[in-house]
Write a structure and sequence with these properties.
141 residues; alpha+beta; DNA polymerase, domain 1; two-stranded antiparallel ribbon; 5 strands; globular
């Protein structure tokens, strides 16, 4: 849905699924129409990385739900350092955080390689890191 929703300006996602809040664009969640900015989408992706989603099969950080995740980001900023520190507080490493972030990510048109027919795996960008010195080591393609 994320790929098709971001293919053409003006496409609208119609879904009550909270996961769709990470896709920039128009979302009708069955009760209201909303516009999701790229920043709001990124923030929701980070929230879901921490909170996990049992229905979708990834755990997030044990003991952290959506409300606690939002609170952590409000206290520390929406950045990769906050994500990593939350996982590390539960004795989980950064690779575990990266796996959860990749599982939480709903792909957009820019995150799929149509020539290869495969997703472009999510990795934190320099803006996600907020100059925090995060230590993710991602193999180059």
């Amino acid at each position: 849905m994320g790929i098709y929703a971001t293919m053409e300006p003006g496409n609208v996602i119609v879904s009550p699924d909270k996961d769709m809040r990470q896709i920039p664009g128009q979302l009708y969640n069955m009760t209201e129409m909303m516009s999701v900015t790229p920043e709001e989408g990124r923030n929701w992706h980070f929230i879901q990385t921490l909170a996990g989603d049992q229905t979708d099969g990834y755990s997030g950080v044990p003991g952290i739900g959506i409300k606690r995740a939002v609170s952590l980001f409000e206290e520390n900023g929406y950045n990769w350092k906050t994500v990593v520190e939350a996982f590390e507080a539960k004795d989980l490493d950064e690779e575990h955080a990266l796996m959860n972030a990749r599982l939480a990510k709903i792909l957009t048109i820019d995150e799929y390689d149509f020539k290869k027919g495969e997703p472009i795996l999510w990795s934190p960008t320099s803006s996600d890191r907020a100059d925090d010195g995060a230590r993710v080591k991602v193999a180059a393609d």
